[in-house]
Amino acid sequence: MDARKAHKASSSSSPSSSSKRWKYDVFLSFRGEDTRKGFTGHLHAALSGDGFRGFLDDNELKRAEFIKTQLEQAIDGSMISIIVFSKRYADSSWCLDELVKIMECRERLGQKVFPLFYNVDASDVRKQTGSFAQAFEKHEAGKHEKEKVQRWRNALSQAADLCGEDLKNADNGHEAKFINKILGVVNKLLDIKSQLDIKHPVGITSRVKALSNHLHIENSGSKDDVRMIGIWGMGGIGKTTLAKAIYNEFERSFEGRSFLENVREVIANQPMGLVRLQKQLLNDILKSEGVNVDSVLKGIEMIRRRLPCKRALVIIDDADDLHQLEAIAGARDWFGPGSRILITTRNQHLLQQVGVDGTYIAEKMDEEEALEFFSWHAFKRRYPDQEYIDLSKRVIRYCQGLPLALRVVGSFLFNRSIAEWESHLEKLQTSPDGDIQKILRISFDGLPDDTTRKIFLDISCFFIGYDKDYVTKILDGCGFYATIGISVLIERCLVTVSEQKELMMHDLLRDMGREIVYENARGHPEKFSRLWKREDVTDVLRDKSGTKKIEGVALHGSYGPRFSGQAFTNMKKLTRFSAQAFTNLKKLRLLRLSGVELTGEYKDFPKKLIWLCWHGFPLESIRDDFPVQPKLVALDLQYSQLKIVWKDCKLHQNLKILNLSHSYELTKSPDFSKLPNLEELILKRCESLSEVHSSIGDLGRLSLVNLEGCVSLKDLPLNFYKSKSIETLLLNWCLSFEKLAEGLGDMVSLTTLKADVTAIRQIPSSILKLKKLKVLSLCDVKWSPSTNLLPPSLHSLSSLRELALANCSLTNDAVPKDLGSLISLERLDLACNDFCSLPSLSRLSKLQDLSLHMCKNLRAIPDLPTNLKVLRADGCIALEKMPDFSEMSNIRELYLSGSDKLTEIPGLDKSLNSMTRIHMEKCMAALISLLILGRTSYRDGLLADLVEFI
Length: 950
Description:
Pfam families: LRR_14 (PF23598), NB-ARC (PF00931), TIR (PF01582), WHD_ROQ1 (PF23282). The protein is of the alpha/beta class. The chain contains 29 helices and 32 strands.
């Protein structure tokens, strides 16, 4: 229903009338013979259609009761009086008496009075000239007392002096447009606010402003376009509240408006719910109660036919299905020019299907907002009581900025003791609030299939904080089609992905997922599908009560979830169970152990594992009786005591990821010949590793090899360089690694090569054949003076985006002369080198970050590309000359600290506006020049905001 229809005459219009209870919104004073069946009748109908209670004499008084006292009561009981001055208005003594009463109410009650001049001049009314003069000639010639006639004249003069509207001067005499304009004036005079109730609108102003940028309501360039905008976010985050605030802020700007609340719930729970919503939309925008809709198809036809002439604001709240939107707002041309359709949803894909013009992502409350919002519910004021502050902050941390949770928990804790607060907070750690879970559960229940639900449950129990691609491979191995499944979870706001590409989840959603696992079997962990709580896993394994219902197990031993090198040195503290405890777990897919030892025979161990993650694996090799795992996708044995992985490699047909990092006793890699589908080999900090098996070169799917920190490794087998699939090779901190073979150039898929802090003396010239190479990092490599580290020319590395050669003692001769020809380069790190000069870099049009930090012999920086954003040249103590900055409009950060020989920076005044930071410590000559320039060219304070100096 239109919010105005909820507005009653109890609203106040001024401080002087704040306590008065009004019967009517508007009293219409008019000359019946002039305008009753025309303009005034239309105006009254428009006011009624807009939800205002307007008094019109023939509507409210029967002829027999048409008496003066009742009219005066109606005037006295109205918030606004609208006077329709027409040519024969003054002919009626009745109208003039009304006018006197209206002006008295204005003086006595602060009533709003708004004059309309309908085909008459305001000056005729004010001075009683023209037709008004003729009327008063008759009044003065009649039986009326002179004092009364004078009161009439005074009232006319006073009313005509008030701010009003003249039909002849407004909208070229177009009555319909004139009436719409009057409706807007009535809105403002009544000062209607918060038509839709919003309790405690904490933080709403900034969010309304941000969303308004998408709506373009007040943008003249978007006056006639119809825009659809989405508000997307998880359940309980405040999407509906924000939509209400937008409605309240802008509804006056539209001819029609409709707020369709809880669309999903209405359709699900009410007979013909979609039809009801269509009917509400039509009635709201057409300002009628009589529109009848008996089917969805008829509703669509009526909306398409009757609403294109209306500039409307439509809010569709909590939509979750395309069919719903197609029946309510199927196309932009269903609504008039300038209309805005705002859709709130938990489903991002729905907004993509509709083709919205923009999406606002609803944000959780920050800590300050959350504390205030919670306080309104828990204490009925803005801030908590002093003795409750620490407890309140614990609640804030638990709720993680979710308004739903803050409201529910706050309301429950209202007027309770500190002891009760502490008890409830402890309870929430193990038993989430049911009201919160009920709302969040809607998103889970709305997932398209059981497979996607299983993905959500697996993530909530085991994979929060794990790399998205890593988890995708594991869950694909479970047959879950995880690529599309995880995308759906992201679209439904059940999962997010961090900047590091890790899967993340709101703690309350995590708790909701785990509560679902508990359903129907609480207190019987052997019947759970997934086990992650230490006490539950311990009970099941010690009692050997596991069943085939269990699909996933995670157990952290005495070291907790993060097994470390320190734990590796003291294996006596391992938590021990019998391997036979797993015998009945026939459907176990996912197993994560940390700091655990399994004793006894393994022959009956589950054989359908997809993921085996066993940090601190306590054996020197994988035992011969460990069953073949034909479905295993990921084997993670970090911090193991392995010396040899297995004596006889068993076929692991589906293994894609092998991670043996931090296995400090491992001396050689396993034989890879029976791992045909291996994609990732991770052997970080296997400090005793000295040999990589030659079969590695035969792996046709291997894309990542990470050998970082393998300090005993000297080289790779020649067969390694035959690989056509390896994309990333990481050798950082392989201190003994001396040589990359000439066959490096045959690794045609290689895109990333990092070999920082190695013993490499020279990169083979065949590297120039690597047309796909994007990242090359050789920092802290001490090359031999007799041979250059790099080939003299690098121009053929046309795909290279990042080149890092920091601290390589590069001299002028060792720097490739055609460095400026690497047209794809985005980041160049030449810090801590010995060269005095560099070739021009101006052709590197994509370069954004250049580091020359601590190049102590560098005297001049060459011409730079105009797109450069960051230049680091701090510590360049010999630097005397800088390039011209006149055209460098994209520069953001400039670091020149310690360059005390530098006296000027040409053209910097033309680039200052783009700067966010300038570091010039111990660079006084250039700084003084810059400050002088700043005084003459820039407003006070600009340089102080940018420059940091000591």
